[in-house]
Amino acid sequence: MVDPDFGPIHLGNPRTEYVAWIDLMGTGAIMEWSQDTATTNIGKLQVIMGECSEPYDLELYPMMDGCYAISDSESDILQFTSDVFERTSEIIVNRYLGRDAPPAYFSPVIRGGIAKGDVYHGSDINGSDLDDHPIQDSILIGRAVARAHSCESDAAPFSCIVHPTGWQKDDFGRLEWCADKYHAQHLVDALNTYFDYYSGKEDVNYPKKKIRKHREMAAGALLREESVSD
Questions:
Q1: Would the pLDDT of 94 be above 80?
Q2: Best CA proximity match to 177, nearest among 107, 116, 115, 224
Q3: Quick one: how many helices (H) and strands (E) in the chain?
Q4: In sequence order, what are the beta bridge partners of 45?
Q5: CA distance 73 to 60
Q6: What does the pLDDT average to over 18-28?
Q7: Most buried residue among 129, 144, 184, 216 by CB atoms closer than 10 A?
Q8: Where are the beta strands (DSSP E) in the chain?
Q9: CA angle at residue 57 from 51 to 58, to 5 degrees?
Q10: Does 226 have pLDDT greater than 70?
Q11: Which SS3 state, helix, strand or coil, does residue 157 take?
């Protein structure tokens, strides 16, 4: 059959769940420049996501340089996301402070988005041609998935935007994951080292205009985040 038997009739009823999308920034550009650096950071993030998920009731859908986390618990999805940001931020901060190697500018830099709403899991889909393929269990679709992904694209480095559906607000909010003002300042300083390095790398496709924007966004989000949490 040329046209596979799959349509809305096969989806059934969606689950109403929280979706967190956490993504490595600049993977494509870094992969073109240094495959070893990009693949190492992808692996580190996936390990962190897996380990941080263990205490919580959620499902993970890894997507190469990022991962979706799904849960019907608001507290679990927020705490899990906070844990991932905290753990990943420690890598670049420890390297910046000389506690670990390699240099800070080889570290994974992440951002994320959270939303709530309709979610269809491939494992819940029945009666279509997908039933014959193991890839079905890897499928994740729905409005909440799209909204979480869209929020992430507007987030600052090491910041997570929360869509109104997931935060019970009239506008976009942010996940305030960093309560330690010293860690927040060290993280901003480490990111400035990261941005300085790539500003001087003509062979990396990271435009200086975008670097300036990300530098300003990171300082504004992380240092403001710290002051709100204190």
A1: yes
A2: 224
A3: 7, 7
A4: none
A5: 14
A6: 97
A7: 144
A8: 15-24, 59-62, 66-71, 110-121, 140-141, 160-162, 173-174
A9: 70
A10: no
A11: coil
The answer to whether the bond into 157 is cis (omega within 30° of 0) is no
Indicate the average pLDDT of the chain: 93
Distances (CA, A) of 50 to 67, 81, 140: 10, 12, 18
**Six token digits for residue 7:** 């349509």
Q: In 3D, which of 230, 84, 78 has the Cα closest to residue 168?
A: 78
- Cα-atom radius of gyration of the chain, to the nearest Å? 19
**What confidence tens digit (pLDDT) does each residue in 96-117 have?**
999 999 999 999 999 999 999 9
> Cα(133)–Cα(135) distance, rounded to whole angstroms?
5
Which amino acid is it at 139? I
Under 8 Å between Cβ of 140 and 149: no
Q: Considering the entire predicted model, what is its pTM?
A: 0.93
54-to-48, 100, 222 alpha-carbon distances in Å? 10, 26, 27
Tens of pLDDT, residues 116-153? 999 999 999 999 999 999 999 999 999 999 999 999 99
pLDDT of amino acid 227: 37
Please check the confidence at residue 230 and state whether its pLDDT lies above 50.
no
